[in-house]
Write the structure tokens for this entry.
Amino acid sequence: MSQDYRFSFGPWNVHEGADPFGPPVRPSVSLGEKLRLYKTLGFDGVQFHDDDAVPELEELTPGEIVKRAREMRRLLHDEGLVAEFVAPRLWEDSRGIDGGYTANDPGCRQWALERSKRAIDIARELGTELLVLWLAREGTYIRESKNPLEAFRHLLDAVNKLLEYDPKIVIAIEPKPNEPMDQAYLPTVGHALAFASQTVDPARVGVLIETAHVILAGLDPSDEMAFALSMGKLLSVHLNDQNGLKFDEDKSFGSANLRAAFNQVRVLELGGYAATGRFVGLDVKAMRTQKPEVAMRHLANSREVFLRLVEKVRTFPRDLEAQCIANRDYEALEIAILRHLMGLSPAL
Ligand code: 3MF
Ligand code: MG
């Protein structure tokens, strides 16, 4: 299988199985144990929330945070791993209850900014320049609760201050239309990239695109990826899957819609994503039914599906594709793709 791609996931992708309706069903796995899993599952990159890398960072001084981050880098090094990105986890702290950067309370906004600067400090120590912003609570439950024009100004202010704080940091916005909020301020890739263009340094702001988030916005993941890639703005991906418009399922890649997964891989291949050196990130959850000893198979399975789809993309006969397109015979193209995905000869 293709050796061109490098893969990453976040420690939260190996979890205890709690959901809003029931408690954990599996014992906790320590970060040390999780890090040991990476290589055996075929992964080289670790996606970090700030407090995955430095637990309880709210209790520590900036100097102590840097020291702990340095220790984490050594741990990564010992496992042969690298950090892909750091993301400030603003949504679990009480001060982030109404959003961080767009909170109505100026004290909360200040906290969100400071916390994000600490995330940048951690990223620097871990040897990555990528800061991911999943703007979880930057939105509203009811529109009247915020002045949206002010909220957009606050958001821009915060991102500008982060860009100015570290001239090397590159920011990837991870758009998601809803959940936990009713409505997010940057729901789609288009919104995120328009916003990026308004910052003090647009060249350092792009997107991380998650399959499920795009589907929740009613859009097509492969087209969103192509849109960002065409502008050199695809900084990472969170491949997973989503069965329709419901809660964010984070299903294994390709498990709900293999054809859509094929198209995401096709776009990454067409756009030369592997050559950018960026990671193929996964954001997948094990089903709650899974026993502890197999509650990481979803990661290896998603990677396997990705790599098999790379082969499917590369082996689809180009002459047949060109012929169907030249004849404007898209029914012929469609059945050829479906046969190919079913393991049959496309040109039956
Ligand atoms: C939520 C997400 C997040 C982000 C993560 C890193 C908890 O739907 O996708 O996962 O991916 O915070 O950006
Ligand atoms: Mg994600």
About this structure: The longest helix spans residues 106-126. The first strand starts at residue 7 and ends at 9.
